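I have been asked to look over a protein record a colleague put together. Alongside the sequence sits a line of tokens, each denoting a local backbone shape. I have pasted the whole thing underneath without changing anything:
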Amino acid sequence: MRVLGIDCGGEYTGYGVVEQDGDGVLHHLCSGAIRLLPQEPLELRLKKICDGLTEIISSYSPEEVAIEDVFYAVNVKSALKLGHVRGVAMLVAAQAGLGVVAYSPLSIKSAVVGYGKAEKSQVQVMVARLLDLPASPEPPDVADALAIAICHLHTAGTLRRQQAEAH
């Protein structure tokens, strides 16, 4: 299974495509961050995300998209901007005919680090280890996107095994 993980952000939107082979081994296919310039109008920043994610989906053909679930932000303006970015990411996935699955930050950290309140640096280190990367992904948004993809692969694999055992 091949999954595109997306970490929606106001300054950087991280992305990562991870594949899990038949033996359960994870493979890093690509990752990076779409940098958004605060001085650009919102509609141009959203178009940049749309174009970037469309290109990644076209190049890597993921089977599903995983994103971080909505969380509560103290700053309403930031939460609204994040909602716009998240909406564009979901729309791009839907236009490509892909399902979108959302995970809470706690679930993502638990799946990757084993502790739901892990620090960003711990997530970066574990993502690098799980994907056999030479260094921790930078900026942290890239590691978060890869962690979201890994979380989905682990969760989907567990659900498939449970369904197989039930039959």
Q: What stands out?
A: The two ends are 21 Å apart (CA to CA). The chain has one domain: 2-166. The CA atoms of residues 105 and 152 lie 12 Å apart. Residues 140-166 form the longest helix (27 residues).
